[in-house]
Structures are given as C-alpha cells and as structure tokens.
Amino acid sequence: MKNHFTAPRLATVQRFFRSDSSTDLMGCYAWCQALSAALLPLLGDFEVSLRNALHRSLSQFYMGADSAPWMLPLAGPLPAGAPQAKTPHAMSSGDKRDIATIVDRRAKRNRALGQDDIVAALSFGFWEQLVNGLGRGQHPNGLQEAVLRSAFPFAPTGTAYASAAFREQLVRLLRMVRDVRNRVGHHDAIWAIPEFNIAGHPGFIPRRPRHTLTSTKLFALRVVWLASWIDPAISAHIEKSDHWACLQMLLSRRALATYRSRGGRTDTYHALITGRASLRSARSFHF
Fold first, then answer.
1. pLDDT confidence of 69, banded at 50, 70, 90?
2. I want to staple 25 with a disulfide (CB 3.0 to 4.6 A). Which of 19, 171, 243, 253 is the partner?
3. Partners of 196 in the beta sheet?
C-alpha cells in the first residue's frame, strides 16, 4: 500500500512522527485514519444538531412552524412585470446557488423535494455563512436575536444574542469545527488540529505527537461544549456513546504506540481494547 501513496504525503507523516521504519510509518498513517474515523460521528452529531436547530428557529421566525420553506421562493402566482420571487430569508448569491443546485439535482431525478430534503443536503459551510449573515441590514428587526436565542438557548449566561460580538464568536467557533471536518473528509493533516479558546481564536498548533493527543482531546471537548449550547442532552448523548469511548481510547500514547509497533495491520484496535498491547512499546517511539 505504501507504494500507492505520494512521496510528499508520506514524507509529511514521517517528519511529524519522526518514523524510522516502514512499519512505524504505516502505523502512524493507520492511527491517523482511525482517529479520523472516531471523530466523524462526533462531528456528524454536532452538524445534524446545528442545522436542525437553525432550521427550526428560522422556520418559527418566518412561518410559525418547526419546519417551513424559509429558504425557497415564496409560493403563488406573480403579477405581470413583478420582480423575481424572493425567499422569506435574505441570503447571499452563493447560498442561493447552493440551494438551487440541490433543487435542480432532485428535479432531474424526478424526486419530490421539501425543505427537509434541502436542509439535509446543505453543507456545514452553508450554516456557518448563514449565521454570519444574520447581521445583514435587510433582515427584519430582531431576526438575529430571535433565531440565535431559539437555536442556542443554553449558551452561557448573559449571552447578548443580538450583538455582533456573539454572532462573530459563534462563526469563529463553527469555522474551527469545519476546519477539522474538512481535514477528516479530505484525509488532511489530522495530527495538526490547532487549539482554540472559547472565543474561537486559534492558538497552539501541535508540533509533536504528544501535542496532537492533547489538542485533539481539547477539540472534542470544545465540540461537546458548543453542542451543549443547543441542548445539554446532545452533549450527554455524545459522551455516553461508543464512538466517544473509541476516540478517548485512541487518544493515548499507548494507542499510538500500538499502531506504530504493529504497522496498523489487522487486529490492531482489537489488541488495544483487549489489553494485549504493551505499554513498554511506547518508550521506543518519539512523542
């Protein structure tokens, strides 16, 4: 398999983990894959909760229902010479294009389309940009406060939902989550997840494998914390899930050393969870 990866990609892994053998190198690569796989359900739970919270809030604001077509042009015949129908919620041309692409794709397949289908198909970045756009002047008065208060009712005490500061903080936090989501989706440098504070400002970037273990643990806790703004029950569900336990298992020196010593071959994770991996092997690797 090593022959099918590009030399620059493997060189990046080799430099960061300071691998000194083919077995070690492929073990590091396999550990990164396992880490990405464990992060994906966490990111998925958060993304689904986020988009549903924002969809519900916008639906209630514009149409008084939990699910309404706030993103689609207003229904009904247009008078002669009337301008093109507008959506209830003002959006950027890029956001409208994303929605139009989904609508066209479904139409070509002769499939029925509702607002819930559109919500499910929109990217994480769409929701980040939607939050960013809540401060536009063309929105109805009170829109941002109403939508963010409804979508994030458990945000920290004293949150000023109508303020630009809170909206910008939320956008920064979502951007940091999206960055990791993209790293997972594009098989990118999962070992270099930057730490970030509660304001969403990035900070320390891992320089050693031991830093990666710490930074990724902090990232997971940040996602759980942000999910609790929507509902603490979401965070409780995540932290009681099997994929959370898997993630915590992988984020240890023992786990990384096990992958490195076995080259990530079949049964590596099983050896880890059954206790057949030796702690002594961790001393042989650079951390």
1. very high
2. 19
3. 202
